[in-house]
Design brief:
The complex is a heterodimer.
Chain A lengths: L2 H22 L5 H24 L7 H18 L4 H23 L4 H21 L1 H4 L5 E2 L5 E2 L2 E2 L3 H24 L1 H11 L1 H6 L4 H27 L1 E2 L6 H14 L4 H18 L6 H15 L3 H18 L1
Antiparallel strand pairs in A: 1-4, 2-3
Helix pairs in contact in A: 1-7, 2-7, 2-10, 2-11, 2-12, 3-4, 3-5, 3-10, 4-10, 7-8, 7-10, 11-12, 11-14, 12-14
Chain B lengths: L2 H22 L3 E7 L6 H20 L8 E7 L4 H13 L5 E3 L4 H14 L3 E3 L14 E3 L4 H14 L4 E7 L2 H14 L5 E8 L7 H8 L5 E5 L4 H11 L6 E3 L6 H7 L7 E4 L15 H15 L5 H19 L4 H9 L4 E2 L4 E2 L15 E6 L2 E4 L3
Parallel strand pairs in B: 1-2, 1-3, 3-4, 4-5, 6-7, 6-8, 8-9
Antiparallel strand pairs in B: 10-13, 11-12, 13-14
Helix pairs in contact in B: 2-11, 3-4, 5-6, 8-9, 11-12
The chains are: A mainly alpha, B alpha/beta.
């Protein structure tokens, strides 16, 4: 079996599992949690393209997510745009913004890049808060319409689930393909050594900006979907904390692993739900679990599972 | 009959006997959403403490029509996304009959679509006018509107013949809502806002803004924010020798503010719920008894003073209690009874709900209080 055949089988199996999950969760509140897992997976996969493949950190991805949500929200509530059109407009807008700021920002490396993206995230967060006439300020913006497709209106947990997950699966498919393509290999070359990549003829500067743009565009799309499913948005959802949460999802799941991003997103979204039984200690336990995972599985969950499988195989052989 | 069959029958009988009281005592499930952690924890924590305390008190004294109340509390961390998830869980998984909270306007607005669709009554503890205007069928609130606090301050300014004011507001939800009201109501009282400054929620020095205001013709300064910002403003005002009267919002009406501001707090006037000055109220005040009991019980249980934020939760639980006692405990019956609540004396004020008014308070819910010798005292009007 070749690698691409294996990829197709894994993706199909994953897609099927996603499609039947709601049938198992009938009427359960967890269905709603899975809607958010879908959105977070999209964001984590998008960030993974940048962080896991190209090795460029961004501490400002919540800003792209927020921009997508707000552009969608403003266009539909103030200018009576069709939600789908607003979504496309938001994604394009954010893509252009990312492309423009990408050139100066991605010249920076390491801590400086982290600082620059963090700064961008904070500036955008302040804009959401201060431009009260546009965004409704800190207390948010309500009345954003749901998406609809012919007779189907995406306004219930079930319909939202399928809406979000179709987009999430498409994002994952795109990312898996991208990772296996020439571009994916070039990105990994940049990750390991920018100088070596340039020597091999990779246009490092442009490629970094391009992948940054793609990543921002997908995040904006996730933002639009979020706005149209929640029908309400407020700046508190798009702050620095959420940017850090996204980076945590990617790292916990495993850098450079698409399914790892899903695992990371699922765990960080679900864990607080299950830890609620511990009441006031849930945050402490949550923090401890994250620390333990990063210490004992430095390659993320996917890396950890692979190492575990390898260890078991070795023992069998011995 | 063999001993074995007899034993089985006996066991079933035993089970049946045990099951009867269990059915009869099925608790009334009420959900609560508070920002216990995160930036608005100064609201969420006293609200959670108060709600738990009131529910325990009700259960200890026999419950609601003989049934205990079970309070299911989730932390929303000030985040609308988390509020959405927690509200869904309360409705779908815990199957609560009513929900109290969330603590902030943003979170409340985020869950209103879910609430309206699920047809579960919600009593929000947030202050935003948007929550109950326009009226939403299933949504009520207990926190006083900012508009009422602003009206209280402007009334007194008018009496003192002050017509030019400077405003200094914090750039968060509380401050921007206050700023909106301060500007829009000014003309009703022939007051001119001649200086309009803002500061960030995390700023530690407001000398620049206060210096600018000192250079203006303002006859009074109104600062709108929650701790700790306004205490810094108070100190900056004193350092810069600004002599005009300083007014603040109900966002700092707690003992904490006096601690933070120290001597600089002297003479500051602000609108507040009556809870801060419960002891100064005349005995004829219908709220006095409940207020003093609340402050005392809170002090006993949590070793700190109960403030008016916690009071929002007290009002919410007691409003629900009243509604359930008068009617049935289905969500629809609770909603209908809530809407008919008349002259309920709570911590925040005297509530009168109606089909057109789901906020229920008038500007009498606020009194003006002043800092005198490191204590809050009631301003006589």
């Amino acid at each position: 079996m070749t690698k691409s055949q294996r990829d197709i089988i894994i993706f199909t199996a994953f897609g099927l599992a996603v499609m039947i999950t709601p049938l198992l969760l009938r009427g359960n509140y967890l269905l709603n949690v899975f809607v958010f897992i879908g959105i977070n997976t999209m964001l984590a996969v998008a960030l993974n393209l940048l962080l896991g493949f190209a090795g460029q950190i961004s501490l400002g991805h919540a800003a792209f997510f927020g921009l997508g949500a707000y552009i969608s929200g403003i266009l539909t509530t103030r200018y009576a745009f069709d939600p789908w059109m607003a979504m496309v407009a938001a994604a394009l807008c954010v893509g252009v913004i990312a492309f423009i700021i990408g050139f100066p920002i991605l010249k920076l490396k390491g801590h400086y890049l982290a600082m620059a993206t963090l700064g961008f995230g904070i500036i955008v967060y302040i804009i959401f808060n201060e431009t009260v006439d546009w965004t409704g300020g800190p207390s948010g913006m309500s009345g954003i319409p749901n998406l609809s497709l012919g007779p189907i209106i995406f306004d219930s947990y079930m319909t939202n689930y399928y809406l979000i997950w179709v987009f999430t699966l498409l994002t994952m498919l795109l990312s898996v393909n991208l990772a296996n393509s020439r571009i994916g290999r070039a990105l990994r070359a940049i990750h390991d050594s920018e100088v070596a990549a340039r020597v091999m003829g990779v246009n490092v500067r442009l490629l970094k900006v391009q992948i940054f743009t793609v990543s921002a565009l997908i995040s904006a799309l996730a933002g639009s979907l979020y706005a149209h499913t929640m029908t309400f948005i407020a700046p508190a959802s798009f702050g620095f904390n959420f940017s850090v949460e996204l980076v945590t999802m990617v790292i916990i799941g495993g850098l450079g692993s698409i399914y790892g991003s899903f695992l990371g997103a699922a765990i960080l979204t679900l864990l607080p739900e299950f830890l609620r039984v511990f009441h006031d200690f849930d945050i402490v336990i949550y923090g401890l679990l994250l620390i333990v995972m990063t210490i004992f599985m430095p390659g993320g969950l996917i890396g950890g599972f692979e190492a575990l499988a390898a260890a078991i195989n070795r023992r069998k052989e011995a | 009959m063999s001993t074995k069959t007899f034993r089985v029958i006996f066991m079933f009988l035993l089970l049946a006997i045990m099951a009867i009281p269990a059915v009869a005592a099925e608790p009334v499930k009420i959900g609560a959403l508070f920002s216990i952690t995160g930036p608005p924890s100064f609201l969420g924590e006293p609200e959670r403490n108060t709600a738990q305390m009131v529910v325990d008190e009700i259960n200890k004294s026999g419950g609601l029509k003989g049934r205990k109340i079970e309070l299911v509390i989730y932390d929303t961390q000030g985040d609308p996304t988390k509020a959405n998830q927690a509200a869904t869980r309360l409705i779908k998984d815990d199957k609560v009959v009513a929900i109290i909270g969330p603590s902030t306007t943003g979170e409340t607005m985020a869950i209103i679509p879910i609430i309206e669709k699920a047809k579960i009554p919600l009593i929000s503890c947030a202050a935003g006018v948007k929550i109950t205007e326009p009226v939403k069928k299933w949504v009520f609130k207990t926190a006083q509107n900012d508009a009422l606090a602003v009206a209280r301050i402007y009334e007194q300014l008018k009496k003192r013949r002050i017509s030019k004011v400077a405003i200094l507001t914090v750039s968060d939800g509380f401050g921007s809502s206050g700023r909106e009201q301060l500007i829009s109501q000014a003309k009703n009282y022939n007051i001119q806002v001649i200086s309009d400054e803002t500061y960030g929620p995390k700023d530690t020095d407001m000398t620049a803004q206060v210096t600018k205001i000192r250079g203006s013709q303002a006859q009074a300064l109104i600062c709108w924010g929650t701790n700790p910002g306004p205490a810094v403003v108070a100190r900056n005002v004193k350092q810069l020798g600004l002599k005009i009267p300083l007014y603040m919002s109900h966002g700092v009406s707690s003992k904490k503010f006096i601690e933070l501001a120290g001597d600089a707090g002297e003479g500051i006037i602000l609108p507040s719920g009556r809870v801060l000055v419960a002891n100064f109220l005349p005995n004829s005040d219908p709220q006095k008894k409940a207020l003093i009991a609340y402050v005392k019980n809170y002090q006993k249980r949590y070793k700190t003073e109960g403030d008016h934020f916690g009071g929002h939760a007290w009002d919410a639980v007691m409003l629900l209690k009243g509604a359930i006692e008068r009617g049935d405990d289905t969500p629809a019956a609770i909603r209908d009874q809530l809407e008919q609540t008349k002259s309920f004396s709570g911590i925040g004020g005297i509530f009168n709900f109606s089909t057109q008014d789901h906020a229920g308070l008038t500007k009498d819910a606020f009194v003006l209080v002043e800092v005198k010798k490191n204590k809050w005292i009631l301003v006589k009007e």
